Amino acid sequence: MSLVTDSAVGTGKRAPSRVKTPALAALLDELAPVGRKKSIKPGDGGVHIISAGAGKKKAAKEAVPPEDKPKKLKKRQDAIDAGSERETPDKELRSKLVILTMHAAAHKRVSPAVQGRKAPPAGVRRAPSVSEGSAAAPCSAPEADRSNPTAAKALGSGGDRVGPSILAGLKIGALMRLPSKKLPAPRTGPWRKIVCPTPQHIEWRPPMEYATVSGNGSGWACFDEEEEELAVVISDEQSDPTFDLVGEEVYNDGLAPDDEEVALLSNFPAHKSKTKSDRDQKWATPPLRFESRFESGNLRKAIRKGETEYTLFMRDDVCSMDQGKEVPHCAQWFYFRVGNMTAHTQFTISIVNFVKPESMYKEGMRPLFYSRVEETRNAKGWYRVGDNIQYFPNNRTFTKGQNKAHYHSLKFTMVFPHEPDEAYMAMCYPYTYTDCQRHMREICNCPERSQFFTRNEFCRTMSGNIVDLLVICDKQSKRKKPAIILSGRVHPGESNASFMMHGMIDYLLGPSHYAIQLRLNYTIYVVPMLNPDGVILGNYRCNLSGHDLNRAYPEPDATLHPEICTIKKLAKELASNDQMALFLDMHGHSSKKGFFLYCCEETVAAFPTNIERRSAFYSMDNTTYKVGKAKATTGRAVMYSAPIGCLNSYTCEASFLGADLPGGTTCVHFNPVMLRGIGAQDVAVCC
Q: Which active-site residues does the annotation give?
């Protein structure tokens, strides 16, 4: 764990862990990562904090006499050194770190604890990553690598300094072996633990589901997602006057800070969920039982307000409020489990802490529902439910700049079809990190497809999860070829992007004529899931450090943004060899229909035009050819600008709702089959 000082920001150098007070030194020492050795020993007139990370040691000197070291800390450290105690951060220490980091300056960030890193699973060949190297300069290369002419190419400054060459590592790496049958367990940081196994859902081809507009108004605010500007608009529509937080608490994930800290972080008032009258209330129906402590789940709290009425709070992105943000990141995503229901009874469910004023629920989008009973009896997977769907502002507010905006509620009614049942509800079809690893194992074990690619460990995330890199090409051809970089799921709540990426990978490894030509004429680098930490935690937009990775491209930090450091380094290496031909980043969109491209000013227009000719779902009206001020730090803009200079740099967006059918009178919901088809037919063919 380290502090990044002002002098380090802008240069890309990570400053030594210079702890300014004995109290903070003790706190950081107690928050040491699990399974990694850490010791404190007297030095020349001070205390040296020595920590082992990524096979290297880093030291920081503090001008505090050794005798001032707390006795309690020394006793605990002796127990750790003796092996009788493990360093496990507890809730109190995590809460202290939250408060410390909230008062830190914008560029003096304390990164969350990083779990110990283990060897990659069988079948994954590890390529050198920018997160390796010396502790003081994570992106610097060892001396052996500096002698390599490929690694010696100038790759820019900041977090992308000269380091071990990714391309050279791919060439000299060992041959890929088939992975083991056991999938790697998803890892989380100290902020949240997964206590339930990852739910598995069956694949099925759902019928066409059409959207019906409820016509519930435009809300209090307008939101242009391309410019990401929130403007408060006074309208005739009033907030919900009946909204309150009184009721019986029936679920609390128990893994978030206390209510007082949540009030501080998320800017909503602390409350007592249970009153005496609520506890003594005798309900005619049993309470619903909620759970979300599994991969990608994000239910924070559930309150029963009536016989069949429930108010739900989704969890804000982990650590997002530690980075000085005024608006919590709980925009749209939800995913949780429900049980103990009463069949054929109408329930009213309200999710009350969404921040986006515009939503596709106003255009007819419906929540997704999954029933284990339907799975067993009818082989039925996810399908749409919900009646009387409303999306409107409530009377809770937050501050955006100098304006005050309202939180928004999603309210709907539904009837559970079976009793008893194990049911799930989600905003979009879930696609977890485990699903991605299962897909990687499937294509690795397929003899027909495995001959066209190699699988590599691109880098490790802050919590130690593997970021996969697939290199797809015709291995018989040894000539230098143009390169294409495809990335997906930088925003964890946009799960539809993973389905598009899934279909694209399957198509590129398939036997079609276009796939053969692509493999023959290009080397395709695919990063299926760029933000595994955020996906595992159930975040909507951020990674484990609380940063939006799609805004970290200009100056990525090797500790806080190792995924962006690595993909940018790969792009610079390819550009320096005059190989960078196309960059495509897959996303989901919450307020527009269809799927479409965000292009750059000098982008060749043939790419979106060819897609429009092939697909009835493509929206040329939503396609743009500009880089707005708010988008200047995105991957699309940075890949387009110098020094990379990739003219064909795009963001592919797919609606959470779906697309208007020809004629514009009917809107159909996208499903996984359609999303995979978008990736396979409408994007891969036009590369």
A: 653
